[in-house]
Amino acid sequence: METSFWSATVLLILITDPLGNIPLFITALKQVRPERRRRVVLRECLIAFAVLLIFLFFGRHFLELMQLSDESLRVAGGVILFLIALKMIFPGEESAFSGKSQGEPFIVPIAIPLIAGPSAMATVLLLSTREPARMLEWTGALTITMLVSTTVFLASGRLQKLLGEPVISALERLMGLVLTAISIEMLMGGVAAYLKKLG
Hints:
Shape: globular
Helix content: over 70%
Number of domains: 1
Strand content: under 5%
Distance between the termini: 20 Å
Number of strands: 0
Structural class: mainly alpha
């Protein structure tokens, strides 16, 4: 299945899940003074963007060094996305962000893993290894994704009040459902490619 620019963008937005992460984001910023929150949001989003760009451009060389195949990455990416999707559809009561926030967050937990989590890293790795000639498109898709995430997080307080917890929860489950289908497609594609190579 060929990935288009817009399907890659939608996939990355679904994986980073900015709407679903609003409650966790607000919790992580509880101890930050209101006048500093905008600066913290921009800094953390830039850090996450830089981390994902590193994975996009240099992850392929790491995979070659580790002698990992494209098929194994597709299967692993499908499994990771499936687990993330299940958590979005059936969220648990406990969360890594449910405890008290300790001062101003730096890198952890907002940049990593809230934005640039394992699933986002695996996805950009997959895009770059499958079609390395389209790196400019993948960079554009990642840039749009980070702009969406930054915009949502900057407006997180207003969005939470406007939409309310039930609507945000419903949107997260809907995104999880779409992501489940994408992960299954990715998993089946990886298995099919591996079986074709064996044949």
